[in-house]
Write a structure and sequence with these properties.
Layout (H helix, E strand, L loop, with lengths): L1 E2 L5 E2 L4 H7 L3 H6 L3 H4 L3 H11 L10 E6 L5 E12 L5 E10 L1 H59 L6 H32 L5 E4 H15 L4 E4 L6 E4 L1 H18 L5 E4 L1
Helix pairs in contact: 5-6, 7-8
């Protein structure tokens, strides 16, 4: 508390003020200007304008730096209230300050984190763009030669079958199988890249109905296979429908594929 009449002087210093500033009560009593001198030189003009405002009411808190007695610079949040007499003349000023150094440091760390996040987001966007370009390259540049390999291998088997022995036919069949497998892998990579770039949408998904649709298509593609799917009824969850569909298409597709040599198959 600062007394303003008849002369400016400090008439009360709280224990918290002593703890925050590192000065003794006597230091404030002996030096009326100490409160201003403690303020960081770069913040002093702003602080002085604030406390000498014509507004007689309590001011909004301000944030300034303060230099402690030991030289340490800390951040404080300060408010002041003018006390007036019956004639409306200011006679005293209450100054209340609290140490917000830790909060300011946390704000700075958050600010740096946000900057890093923005940079990471920009890098991620650039990476996704490169991935998209690569996907198109894979789609057009790699699949074309694979189709040629598969097509010419099939032509050899059909047009020159009498000139080929069993070993030659086996080699060509293996070549066709490998090229078709590579085509499936490329299709899977393209599908995965599209899924990872898309935005996730959470909603209720009926897993029982989803799995039933997938297994029905598998049966339609190979109706001769004797495969029994055991699907529990009423399974519902929250998730992205497209991602869940891709998940179960891969799981069930692999189960279907790797049991192809079995006469009867049961998949749960």
């Amino acid at each position: 508390r600062i007394q303003m009449t008849p002369t400016i002087m400090t008439d009360y210093v709280s224990p918290s003020c002593i703890r925050i500033t590192g000065y003794r009560q006597e230091d404030f009593y002996n030096d009326p200007n100490l409160g201003l001198e403690m303020i960081h030189p770069e913040d002093r003009e702003f602080f002085q304008k604030h406390v000498t405002s014509d507004n007689k009411k309590s001011q909004k808190p301000i944030t300034v730096r303060l230099v402690r007695k030991d030289g340490q610079v800390i951040w404080i949040e300060q408010t002041h209230t003018i006390i007036s007499n019956e004639q409306g003349e200011p006679v005293a000023m209450h100054l209340i300050a609290r140490d917000i150094t830790e909060r300011k440091h946390a704000e700075e760390q958050l600010k740096h984190a946000m900057v890093n996040l923005e940079q990471s987001s920009a890098q991620l966007a650039a990476t996704n763009k490169e991935l998209e370009t690569f996907s198109y390259s894979v789609s057009h540049d790699l699949r074309s030669p694979l189709r040629s390999i598969d097509g010419f291998s099939q032509a050899l088997l059909e047009d020159y079958t009498e000139s080929l022995d069993d070993t030659g036919k086996d080699y060509l069949n293996r070549l066709r199988t490998a090229s078709q497998k590579m085509g499936e892998l490329i299709d899977g990579l393209l599908k995965l890249s599209r899924l990872t770039r898309s935005e996730m949408h959470q909603e209720e998904v009926n897993l029982s109905m989803l799995v039933k649709e997938i297994t029905s298509r598998l049966h339609e593609n190979e109706p001769r296979r004797q495969v029994e799917f055991v699907i529990r009824k009423g399974l519902v969850t929250q998730g992205d429908p497209e991602l869940l569909r891709a998940l179960f298409e891969n799981l069930l597709g692999n189960a279907w594929k790797f049991t192809s040599k079995s006469e009867k198959t049961r998949i749960e």
